[in-house]
Structures are given as structure tokens and as C-alpha cells.
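ENTRY TYPE: protein
WANTED: fold as C-alpha cells:
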Amino acid sequence: MNLTNESYVIFIGTKNFVERYFRDGKGWVKVSARGHTFRATAEQVLNHVLPAVAGIKQNVTITVEHHDS
């Protein structure tokens, strides 16, 4: 079982939108709700994930999927 960062996809969203974060060969990638792709640092990913995990942002859900390559 592969447990590296490359084997996970993080979904952050509400009932109206969902953003995806995943890691490719060059680093983290964010796919916006409109489908636009952006490069992201690990710190930027954490800045989006941690407030939702801590419960500071209401009505925001986080889902993580694991995919073995």
C-alpha cells in the first residue's frame, strides 16, 4: 500500500463548490471549482485545510481519497 502524498486527493468544499488538491511530480496542485489549475506550496494547502479541520470555517467539508498507483 502506497501512503505517500502522491496517493491522496483532498476535496474541500461546501454544497455549492468543491476544490481539489493533489500532488504530482512537481508539487501540489489546486483545481478550483471552475476547473482552473494552480500550483500550490505545501503551506498554501495547509492554510486551506487546517481551518476547516479545526472547525473554524462552518459548512466546509473535507474528504480525502486514497488511490494506489
Notes: Strands lie at 8-13, 18-23, 28-31, 37-40, 61-66. The mean pLDDT is 93. The CA atoms of residues 10 and 64 lie 5 Å apart. The first strand starts at residue 8 and ends at 13.
